[in-house]
């Protein structure tokens, strides 16, 4: 977001009652007049420091003038505001928008909880149903030899299940094949 757009967004906040006093506005105008490159000419600085005009009018005119001049001028205004009124600078609406995350962005922590809100029991139940259906379909198929294939699968799975469990399963399969 450009500084001009930010300044346009912050204009109401800055010009509302008693946000900036005359001394701070004068310091900002003087800094914009003396900074390199010179943002405000001497005539413009005198115009925006004129005590005959109300503070609200001077500040509104200054902000409109800076927006017409371009992004660099608006950036220098923000720098002067930060130096002369840091608390107000930190309270600007555009600063708060920069600090808050993008509302369209996915919060991964929140998404993680949304996906796992049912807990591990639900996962185990779904997995058990899926494994049971797969085993039932595999066993009911008359073209396959269940015992031979199961022995090969269990023989190559010492990593997946422990050695003792594998030995028990192998003994069980051998016992079933003899009967």
Automatic annotation (TrEMBL):
<dbReference type="InterPro" id="IPR011029">
    <property type="entry name" value="DEATH-like_dom_sf"/>
</dbReference>
<keyword id="KW-0256">Endoplasmic reticulum</keyword>
<dbReference type="GO" id="GO:0005789">
    <property type="term" value="C:endoplasmic reticulum membrane"/>
</dbReference>
<keyword id="KW-1015">Disulfide bond</keyword>
<feature type="transmembrane region" description="Helical">
    <location>
        <begin position="120"/>
        <end position="138"/>
    </location>
</feature>
<feature type="domain" description="CARD">
    <location>
        <begin position="38"/>
        <end position="96"/>
    </location>
</feature>
<keyword id="KW-0496">Mitochondrion</keyword>
<comment type="subunit">
    <text>Associates with BCL10 by CARD-CARD interaction.</text>
</comment>
<dbReference type="Pfam" id="PF00619">
    <property type="entry name" value="CARD"/>
</dbReference>
<dbReference type="InterPro" id="IPR043574">
    <property type="entry name" value="CARD19"/>
</dbReference>
<keyword id="KW-0472">Membrane</keyword>
<keyword id="KW-0812">Transmembrane</keyword>
<dbReference type="GO" id="GO:0031966">
    <property type="term" value="C:mitochondrial membrane"/>
</dbReference>
<protein>
    <recommendedName>
        <fullName>Caspase recruitment domain-containing protein 19</fullName>
    </recommendedName>
</protein>
<dbReference type="GO" id="GO:0042981">
    <property type="term" value="P:regulation of apoptotic process"/>
</dbReference>
<dbReference type="InterPro" id="IPR001315">
    <property type="entry name" value="CARD"/>
</dbReference>
<keyword id="KW-1133">Transmembrane helix</keyword>
<dbReference type="InterPro" id="IPR042146">
    <property type="entry name" value="CARD_BinCARD"/>
</dbReference>
